[in-house]
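Support request, please re-run this one:
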Amino acid sequence: MATWYSASTPQEIDRLLAAWSSAPIENVELCSMLLEVAQEQVIAYAPAPVVSDPDTGIVNFQFSIVDGAIVATDLVLSSDVADDFTGTVTAPASSEGVRFEFEFEDGEVVGTSIVTGFDEIPSRYVYAQLQQAKNLWAAGEADQESNIGAEGYSFQPRPLDKVIRQLIRPQSGAADVF
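Re-run finished. Output below.
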């Protein structure tokens, strides 16, 4: 299972330096910010999760109000499940991994929860985060003429360049000619 890069602990910094030897770890706050921004950009660009069953149902919130105050909330799933179904029904709520989960026993809901984040982060997302953090750092290091380094090599750093976008949303390779 892949894990997002971070600079919070000495072990995470060692892992980061193994992958990016010139990471700006002398300023841990800045380095952490670069990694967090890169992670947010990868998640924002990532495609919405694939729903295995598009007829999962509709999720509603149910509120109980007593004396003008909300005293209870609940998730209600409008979906057909077998009378003897035991298991979990998951309804995606966002492209960032947020989802509603409903636990069933013998066709009755016995538990509900809102789950945030991905269960498993694709390795290509973590690699894209690292590459994007490098791009963000390089963009901040360029001078007024977009030159970087002592030799004055010139390039135009761009957030989420096409290589990183391809990592996050790989193309199938088949032509789309319709």
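The mean pLDDT is 75. The longest strand covers residues 69-78.
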